[in-house]
């Protein structure tokens, strides 16, 4: 039994999957609410706000992506998606609209419980120990209030985008690998690094003047990403070997850009 009981909303139209997932989550000490479709899920989330939502993307009528959009529009509740194997486009889109994690069907219920615990643990840690306010490069962030702004304009960030920005802002000028971001921001020991790539790309879309030519969150090839405390104006600063904005079709880390192109990786 957990010292802090969590309420989990499970949204799946397959009664067998819902029953198995519910059983494992309840044995792990959580309270579970069930919904079999999108409208029911939104009503349940309004009536009793969940601490986390386990959401199947393949729902009748209103699909899981639309449910996720509407949930994210009302409150920053963590969402774990259940996706079919091979539905990479839906998985990437789900992450881009604010889902925190995904589990691919068929899945181990124990794996799902571990993912739930990881996301909840991260959310509790951030709530319990908010860091100091910080302001750099026109970005102001208040971890205690969970607010962020760019040049005085409030930023609409998901839970994970906020945590990612806070982590990068606290380490200006430091090259940070995607593996380290996955461990420190997501709380995962291992996982699909494209999750980090997607969140970085989405965060750039919200804080960069030109997301196609990022000057705040720079890619460090073969390493990961670096937040520029005082970014150069494009075309005026010196060239720095091994850094720069992304090139389509590549992503940092691993064997470098060429390997990423050969494998068709997402760009960060």
UniProtKB/TrEMBL annotation:
Residues 232-250 have a biased composition (Low complexity). The keyword Oxidoreductase does not apply. Keywords: DNA-binding, Phosphoprotein, Transcription, Transcription regulation, Two-component regulatory system. The modification 4-aspartylphosphate is found at residue 56. The keyword Nucleotide-binding does not apply. Residues 131-229 bind DNA. GO terms for molecular function: phosphorelay response regulator activity; transcription cis-regulatory region binding. Residues 131-229 form the OmpR/PhoB-type domain. Residues 230-268 are annotated as: Disordered. InterPro entries: CheY-like_superfamily (IPR011006), OmpR/PhoB-type_DNA-bd (IPR001867), Sig_transdc_resp-reg_C-effctor (IPR016032), Sig_transdc_resp-reg_receiver (IPR001789), WalR-like (IPR039420), WH-like_DNA-bd_sf (IPR036388). SMART domains: REC, Trans_reg_C. Pfam families: Response_reg, Trans_reg_C. One of its GO terms (cellular component) is protein-DNA complex. One of its GO terms (biological process) is regulation of DNA-templated transcription. Residues 7-120 form the Response regulatory domain. This is Response regulator transcription factor. It comes from Streptomyces sp. NBC_00003.
């Amino acid at each position: 039994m957990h010292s802090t009981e969590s309420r989990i909303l499970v949204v799946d139209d397959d009664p067998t999957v819902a029953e198995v997932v519910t059983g494992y989550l309840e044995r792990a000490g959580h309270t579970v609410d069930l919904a079999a479709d999108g409208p029911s899920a939104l009503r349940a989330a309004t009536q009793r706000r969940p601490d986390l939502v386990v959401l199947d993307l393949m729902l009748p009528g209103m699909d899981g992506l639309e449910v996720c959009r509407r949930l994210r529009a009302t409150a920053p509740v963590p969402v774990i998606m259940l996706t079919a194997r091979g539905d990479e486009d839906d998985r990437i889109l789900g992450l881009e609209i604010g889902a925190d994690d995904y589990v691919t069907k068929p899945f181990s219920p124990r794996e799902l419980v571990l993912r739930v615990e990881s996301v909840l643990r991260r959310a509790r840690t951030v709530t319990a120990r908010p860091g100091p306010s910080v302001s750099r490069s026109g970005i102001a962030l208040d971890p205690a209030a969970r607010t962020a702004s760019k040049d005085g304009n409030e930023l609409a960030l998901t839970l994970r985008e906020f945590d990612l920005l806070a982590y990068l802002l606290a380490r200006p000028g430091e090259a940070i690998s995607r593996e380290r971001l996955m461990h420190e921001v997501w709380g995962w020991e291992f996982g699909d690094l494209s999750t980090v790539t997607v969140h970085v790309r989405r965060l750039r879309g919200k804080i960069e003047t030109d997301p196609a030519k990022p000057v705040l969150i720079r890619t460090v090839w073969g390493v990961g990403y670096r937040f520029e405390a005082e970014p150069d104006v494009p075309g005026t600063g010196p060239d720095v070997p091994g850094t720069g904005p992304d090139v389509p079709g590549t992503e940092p880390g691993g064997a470098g850009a060429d390997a990423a192109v050969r494998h068709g990786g997402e760009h960060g």
